[in-house]
Design brief:
Layout: E1 4-8, H1 21-33, E2 38-41, H2 47-50, H3 53-67, E3 72-76, H4 83-95, E4 99-103, H5 112-126, E5 130-133, H6 144-151, E6 156-161, H7 166-173, E7 182-185, H8 188-197, E8 201-204, H9 211-222, H10 226-243, H11 250-258, H12 277-286
Parallel strand pairs: 1-2, 1-8, 2-3, 3-4, 4-5, 5-6, 6-7, 7-8
């Protein structure tokens, strides 16, 4: 079972939108140096839907090669299940991915039985541990009954809870789930509370810029240091807010450029008018992120 901070890794790109494989390899090394537990490749910013299968395959292959078994690499299958989903699951197995991630399809009106059957088909094909992430737009997602049924599917090893509702988290933790099945927070702002409650880790966007601090937060929570974990979490709340303001992750890319982790390129990302560069800089400095 995976435990710890799983980074929803930003995919660096060139000006023309093509993946920047060399920078990806540099990011893998940086996360290894910062003791990150695992990286999800091709997930952030819905890259699974934007990139073609050849680009996704090369991203995954490069990440696994660079990781050299020093960090787990998880292949994102996206949330639009089609023939390419099954093809990519086979590719991920052949490349040696540590695990796969599938977001429960968000199709309106998708019944629970059909949703579970789709997950079962992918798990049977995958040959790798499969994590299932909730899509909050789907009314069938995240219920105690759904998670119980998912845990019964051979090959499904965990559920990523995108809800920030800790009462719901307590419901899931009260279920009699198999010992090898993990629960993971899917929202940075509530992850500390959920890990303190008993979640096995979190899938984090914010850890793209502060992996060491997020891993420290997890270690404190796992060690039962509630006061220490909550103090660090309060310290990071301004950073969560600043980085998660834009659903396109533009603040994250901008921050990584400021940190020197990814190249600026000819057209650096531009924040929306609602965003404030100064506020983002202050949040990064307050969280002791060097820029």
């Amino acid at each position: 079972m995976l435990k710890g901070i799983i980074i929803d890794l930003i995919t660096p790109t060139h000006v023309n939108g093509a993946p920047d494989y060399e920078t990806l390899e540099t990011l893998v090394d940086w996360h290894v140096d910062n003791a990150s537990h695992a990286l999800i490749v091709g997930s952030a910013n819905h890259q699974a839907e934007i990139l073609n299968i050849e680009e996704r395959t090369e991203l995954l292959r490069r990440a696994i090669w660079q990781a050299d078994q020093r960090i787990s690499i998880i292949a994102d299958l996206g949330d639009k299940v089609n023939e390419q989903t099954f093809e990519y699951a086979n590719i991920a197995d052949e490349c040696g991915a540590s695990a796969l991630l599938i977001s429960i399809p968000a199709a309106a009106g998708l019944s629970q039985s059909r949703m579970l059957e789709t997950i079962r088909e992918i798990a049977n094909l995958a040959k790798r541990p499969l994590l299932v992430r909730a899509n909050l737009d789907n009314p069938n997602v995240g219920s105690s009954n759904t998670v119980t049924e998912l845990a019964r599917i051979s090959g499904v090893s965990g559920f990523v809870d995108s809800s920030a509702n800790t009462e719901h988290s307590q419901e899931l933790l009260s279920l009699k789930l198999p010992s090898g099945f993990g629960l993971y927070a899917g929202h940075d702002a509530s992850a500390c509370q959920q890990i303190l409650m008993g979640y096995n880790g979190s899938v984090s966007i914010v850890a793209n810029v502060n992996p060491a601090q997020m891993q420290k937060l997890f270690n404190l929570a796992q060690a039962g240091d509630r006061a220490g974990a909550l103090a660090l979490d309060r310290h990071l709340q301004a950073l969560y807010a600043a980085l998660l303001e834009d659903p396109n992750s533009t603040p994250l890319k901008w921050a990584l450029i400021e940190m020197g982790c990814i190249p600026e390129g000819e057209h650096p990302p531009s924040l929306s008018q609602a965003s404030d560069y100064s506020a983002l800089r202050r949040a990064l400095r307050a969280a002791q992120v060097s820029i």
